[in-house]
Amino acid sequence: MSLLAHWVDGVQGAPLAVDDRGAAYGDGLFESILWSRGRAVWWAHHIRRLSRDATRLGIAPPKPWFWQEDLDFANAWLRAEGCERAVIRLTLTRGRGGRGYAPPVPAEPMRMLQIHDAPGIDAALQPISTMRCRIQLATQPALAGMKHLNRLEQVIARRECAVAHVDEGVMFDTEGALVCSTMGNLLLRLDGRWLTPPIERAGVAGIARDHLIRHGLAVEQPLHEPELARAEAIAVCNSVRGILPVGSLDGQPYEDQKETHALQQALHDIEPSFLAMVG
Amino acid sequence: MSLLAHWVDGVQGAPLAVDDRGAAYGDGLFESILWSRGRAVWWAHHIRRLSRDATRLGIAPPKPWFWQEDLDFANAWLRAEGCERAVIRLTLTRGRGGRGYAPPVPAEPMRMLQIHDAPGIDAALQPISTMRCRIQLATQPALAGMKHLNRLEQVIARRECAVAHVDEGVMFDTEGALVCSTMGNLLLRLDGRWLTPPIERAGVAGIARDHLIRHGLAVEQPLHEPELARAEAIAVCNSVRGILPVGSLDGQPYEDQKETHALQQALHDIEPSFLAMVG
Question: From CA A42, how far away is CA B272, in angstroms rounded?
Fold first, then answer.
């Protein structure tokens, strides 16, 4: 998934400042957005989350029309290139600053839009292999829920998966609670419902997760190893791939994907850019 | 403390790649080094820590002679400018990568040297005001000890200090153990000794702290609120400023700075670039 084009503060191809606090301290946020059928899927939700989390960090969020202008550039670029699907990454940092953790006053936030190529169109239809990660997520309520730039735990988890030749990792927090997978939120099928763990102490408040909950397709509930062990099916969701069916966990297969396919279909009905298995 | 000059992979003034994983995920490390009397203080120790922590993260550390070449450039620049003191920041990231947390294979790490102006020469001699930070450090043994680029907790802590008009913050972890201050390691004077908390679950294995311990000037010991409350004196140490005397904690003054001045003198005897009160 390589970088195709980018805009920094509205300027195509502009470089990052070497003293940007995003690069120096991870002092910022990002969004990964599916671009499909000529538009950015769930755009308003992503901008709303980004603005909300910026406010939590004390970063003044750009007015939405700045992002809209960036998106207009991206739309024009993608249409001119004849792209059908892509991933748009938005990054917002506190901007440039000197040495030291104290945020500069005043700060001028930096915004960037990047266009990446998209995962294969049928990627979401193939069941993925998963494993329980050894690294546990630290619990930090001050950062939980945000899609911030401090992602070393996820990087370490992905390295574990790569070593094990497994597609994706299931992550617990240091207190033994299930939180998420490395690249999305987690869904367990239990007793006729899809359950997803809370994200108040660790994890990201995913946009796809939000949609599933608001449409009554999933319910938030604290989950631990016993629930994981007896889940009838598992899925991962994120706003780029939609619902990813889990084919196995630490080698144990999930044969019955019926409920997962039904969930894919339900998400497809909400947002047709997310694919579903055909009958 | 503004940026004066920089080198990216040995090239002066070169930009950061917009798809660098340091900027994308905080996937990297840094060092802050005092430059004084024509040389980088404790250079070998900083390079050793950076290399050790890179290995922990699975980032191939550059051979030391690459860093040495960067330092040669910096030395020449600083001497030509007639600088007496400066701060050198080294940054090492996993390098460029596409979207997604999985480290690229192979990865080409990015190294950067930045020259910043130094804090005032007598900064270390003035007692600083401190407060207990509300934000607690998450415990994450997989990252503890490293000076990595995931620094949002410190940024949030510094914002608390700024709001309170206090110089520096004392930080506990989520389990109630004392860990550090926002910009250095912590030293408590108790029962005739300088004590410093362990950094196995959170915090940074500071180079100044290491020197103090190895020279028998401080002892590592688990510390909590009761020890903080009854400390006769408090100091902060880091490898840019040396020993910073704490003048107050949440408004409670520490009148007697005798032991802190003795510690400054002891560090000055080890490394004369760190100042001590005269007589």
Answer: 59
